[in-house]
């Protein structure tokens, strides 16, 4: 029995070594090297080449090495086996850290103070509203979105969430579906995007959404934080909204093309904060431990956890 690692550009060797440490009883094989395709029971994948998971007659499941699975769902030769997401407490905590960090930077006007420091300029008259007067809206109320919502609420922010289908989250105002999206946007000063990337959400964060954000807030205009997927955003619209004042700032961890090209205007835009798709970088050992637990459960006759619905893509 063997586990196939089909990974591109995501620390492939690190995950292979973690599998060898945590599951020493299994043979670990790598895409691109010779291996017995009949012996493969499971596959772990991230941005694998299309068709790399086909022709595995005894494959039982495919594990995504991240919370997102859009990189799998676009493979036209994806096997008809369960696709499993990683729901990792470590990954979830790191994403919430990222969201809280950047919401606090907006609340406390940290970018303005950094600019003043660079100019050796002392000004202490910037507006400092309490967190309770700043409205954060989360697009996406899955595991990541709900955890971030709870932690933002703990910091005192006025938090609401939007999802494609109705959800109830204790202590959080929730909106759902296209009919409630305008009301959600109209009460949002800081928009945090944590949606999965599916055909229905691709390009969703466009000029119309950004122009629908609140204009009466205490943080100098609407702000965008996208730590979901680059395919969710229309980048030309974001730049246009930054330039015309529709957006006060954008914090972007993800982009349509990654790594972000050197000639991208995002690099030098004064209202943009860039991070290199590392908002929720979980440790390889933590992810592989969760995968190993799933395999043990499955082989003991227990059901899979965190199975992706092919119809929705998450």
CATH class type of the largest domain = Alpha Beta
Class of secondary structure makeup: alpha/beta
Can you count the beta strands? Answer: 12
What is the topology, as strand order, of the major beta sheet? 8-7-6-9-10-11-12
Shape: elongated
Q: Taking all residues together, what is the mean pLDDT?
A: 95
Strand percentage lies at: 15-25%
- End-to-end distance: 28 Å
Low-confidence stretches: none
Integer tally of domains = 2
Number of helices: 9
**How does CATH name the architecture of the largest domain?**
3-Layer(aba) Sandwich
Q: Superfamily at the CATH H level of the largest domain?
A: NAD(P)-binding Rossmann-like Domain
* SSE order: EHEEEHEHHEHEEHEHEHEEH
Rg over CA atoms, rounded to whole Å, is 21 Å
Helix content: 25-40%
CATH topology of the largest domain: Rossmann fold
Largest sheet: 7 strands, parallel
Describe the structure.
It is a single chain. The strands form 2 sheets. A 7-stranded parallel beta sheet has the order 8-7-6-9-10-11-12. A 5-stranded parallel beta sheet has the order 2-1-3-4-5, covered by helices on one side. The protein has helices at residues 12-22, 70-73, 89-107, 110-118, 143-154, 177-186, 207-211, 235-243, 284-299, and strands at residues 2-7, 27-30, 40-46, 61-64, 83-84, 135-139, 158-163, 173-176, 190-193, 223-226, 249-252, 272-274. It has 314 residues and is α/β, with parallel strands linked by helices. It is 30% helix and 17% strand. The longest helix has 19 residues, at 89-107. It is elongated, with a radius of gyration of 21 Å. The chain folds into 2 domains: 2-88 and 282-299, 3-Layer(aba) Sandwich (Rossmann fold), CATH 3.40.50; 89-274, Rossmann fold (3-Layer(aba) Sandwich). The model has no long low-confidence stretch (mean pLDDT 95). The protein is built from 9 helices and 12 strands.
